[in-house]
Predict the 3D structure of the following.
Amino acid sequence: MVHLHFDRKIGGRYTQMATGDGVPDDHNEFNVELTTGAVTKGYAYRVRQGQSPTGDMYHCHKGGNVSQNRLDTRFLKQNAETLGAAANPEFYDAVMALAAAEYAAQKRVNIQIAPKDLETLKAANYKLCFAKKVSGQEFNVVWQSYHDYLVSNNFSWVPTYQLFGSNSFQNNLNVSVSTNQVNIGLGQITTLDEAGILEKPKTGGPDVSVSMQNDFGDIHPGINQLSTGISGNQVSTPIYVAPEPAVKGEVSLTPVEKVLVWFEQNIETGTMFSDARSNEIEIDLTDSAEETRLYTDQGWKTP
């Protein structure tokens, strides 16, 4: 087994998305056991071995992350026979169009921390936390929390979602996913059938929302969204769980481009909360692709 690094080209530069162990094969599909981050089916990744600064391109045939399918992630060497315009132009064009659309829709915040404040926060074991807004609802899930933040920290996301159902919403506990999870886009709807299984989404519901036709009964709908963390790792984690259960019928959830940022001790990614955060700041990216905020003298400002 060889330690591998998986880089994806975003905005003209390569960004490390994951690491893992495997044995690259120039002719056959090979498996990877991920150790950090996530990779997504349909994308091409530069695969570097060990400390090598360069690597060959491989196509991800089955994605995964360190908490889901990390032992069953598969790649195939990218060449004219596997991912070329001559071999499969329709598939190639679709993948490239998806990547371009994803990058165009990317939102990013840069969180800067004054050195003295950084020392104080680190000494007291505070984490840098992010939450994402759902229209008409309060922030209620820690989207990501980080202990390895530095003076400058980039956090970004794209409109790539998963829908799931949970049996409960409990303050200060981690989200518990009770159903299967389905990939879903804005303007799509999935059915939670009588057995509690989410079906493949189809077009339906409001164009700006992800929707669920609930044929099961009491359930707390929840959403995951894909983000790229401050260390460059990409992962899909919960941004929202409905505090009250939805009854039978159709329910729609509308993510909006507003994030909450704060520092907190003893809190983890995926923690549900129902009260205000201390010394928080809400950042609105509805009309912008990138925003920067500075934390200095224990307060927030726009530099």
